[in-house]
Design brief:
Blueprint: H1 8-14, E1 18-22, E2 28-31, H2 33-39, H3 43-46, H4 51-54, H5 66-80, E3 84-85, E4 89-90, E5 93-94, E6 102-103, E7 106-115, E8 121-130, H6 132-135, H7 143-185, E9 198-202, E10 211-220, E11 226-237, H8 238-258, H9 262-273, E12 283-290, E13 295-301, E14 307-309, E15 315-317, E16 322-323, E17 338-341, E18 347-351, H10 363-376, H11 382-393, E19 403-409
Parallel strand pairs: 13-16
Antiparallel strand pairs: 1-2, 1-8, 3-7, 4-7, 5-6, 7-8, 9-19, 10-11, 11-12, 12-13, 13-17, 14-15, 14-18, 18-19
Helix pairs in contact: 7-8, 8-9, 10-11
Length: 410
């Protein structure tokens, strides 16, 4: 024990299993005593060296795939931030006492990410259990049956690995489709007023690159010199929710151009949503910014309130015109609408619930957390402000819900 708590370096070295830490470039950063003992290597032979310089494939076995499989797993963890349990692997190891001689070894590896303060993968945890003795168990009256079971175990493990690889390839193709869909439906907006808004989109951990969250910015026609800014959230994840999102986003964009204010635009979209399967209980908030009168008119259908960050360092939540989500009422009703004044230099912040909500936590706690973050970074441009807010409010390993964020400097 140390003066301020547990000595985690000592805990790491004392772990009973084989554990190594690697950089995303697959260079050994550390290895515990059991890893070095079982691998038959010293710290000097391992730390600071490239993984496959220390443990290359057996050149005498043309069918060896251990190195390729392990490299693919570790790079996948580094890229996705997701844990990967590998199938049983044969990975021969060169004898440290007899260079040039290779020992037949079998391993059960698990690879996991370690995240830095910015949410990026900074280290890879490589935990491995050697099962060579199990695979090579011999002797006793049941030797024949043991060999059959061992062969079946190894064969099934390899088959499982091949199936997982095919699933990963299929998932990668889906991600490409999802990314193209996202880019088509959520383009980067142009300047709003004298400033370019900052927009961010973060899918939930483990989901495709698209979901039911959206944002939209629309120049308003007519005598009003202004823009409509909206965010919404369709229930669910994946391509189906994204399809519904695209329909509702387009409907609201069109309604905002012809409606007499944000409340009427939501009433039109509410009517349309009743004919769209999967659109029920969608939340959305839309704001109309009038540059001439320096006012923001807004209406919300069950969505978290936009935040108005004033130049004096205070935060005002626009929560005086809130109604149930789309399709939540049996009959169409007039939705509420309210307005508030803004000053030059204020910032309007719209977001979806993935930014503020946490399980078993009151929503007011999340709203306070957002307000504190905005005040701490008050005065900086929308782009770095958006990055700072996401860094402080989203969990290091990624959020469990999708998140959209729009910041407009007024």
């Amino acid at each position: 024990m140390t003066d301020d708590g547990i000595d985690y370096a000592a805990v790491f070295q004392g772990l009973p299993g084989m554990v190594a830490l690697m950089t995303p470039e697959l260079v050994f950063a550390d290895a515990n005593q059991e890893f070095l003992r079982m691998a038959g290597r010293t710290r000097e032979q391992v730390i600071g060296r490239y993984l496959f310089d220390v443990f290359p494939d057996n050149p005498n076995n043309p069918a060896a795939t251990g190195m390729r499989n392990l490299e693919a797993s570790l790079k996948r963890v580094a890229a996705t931030g997701e844990r990967d349990a590998m199938a049983l692997q044969r990975y021969d190891v060169q004898s440290p006492q007899r260079p040039g001689e290779w020992e037949e070894r079998y391993w059960s590896p698990v690879n996991a990410p370690v995240f830095g303060p910015d949410g990026r993968v900074v280290l890879l945890v490589h935990r491995v259990e050697e099962v060579t003795e199990l695979i090579k168990a011999r002797g006793g009256p049941d030797t024949g049956r043991t060999r059959v079971l061992e062969a079946e175990l190894y064969t099934r493990a390899r088959e499982l690995q091949e199936v997982n690889e095919r699933l990963r390839q299929a998932h990668a193709r889906e991600r490409e489709v999802a990314l193209a869909l996202q880019q088509a439906m959520l383009p980067v907006p142009g300047p709003v007023g004298r400033h370019r808004p900052a927009v961010r989109y973060r899918p939930a951990v483990g989901s495709l690159n698209v979901c039911g969250d959206w944002y939209d910015l629309v120049d308003l026609p007519g005598d009003c010199v202004g823009v409509a800014v909206a965010v919404g959230d369709v229930v669910g994840h994946g391509l189906r929710a994204a399809g519904v999102m695209g329909l509702l986003r387009s409907a609201l964009s069109a309604a905002s151009r012809v409606a007499d204010g944000p409340a009427q635009a939501l009433e039109v979209v509410d009517l349309y949503a009743r004919s769209v399967d999967g659109a029920e209980n969608t939340t959305v908030v839309t704001t109309h910014i009038d540059w001439d009168t320096h006012t923001i008119t807004y209406s919300s259908a069950g969505h978290p309130p936009p935040a108005l960050l004033h130049t004096d360092g205070t935060v005002e939540y626009l929560d005086q015109a809130t109604d149930p989500p789309l399709g939540a009422r049996p009959d169409l009703v007039h939705r509420p609408e309210d307005a508030t004044a803004f000053a030059t230099g204020d910032a309007l912040v719209l977001y979806t619930d993935g930014l503020i909500e946490r399980r078993r936590e009151d929503i007011d706690v999340g709203l306070d957390r957002l307000a504190d973050s905005l005040v701490r970074h008050q005065g900086i441009d929308p782009e770095p402000l958006a990055d700072a807010v996401l860094l402080e409010l989203l969990p290091p390993g990624g959020a469990t819900d999708d998140t959209a964020l729009v910041i407009v400097r007024l």
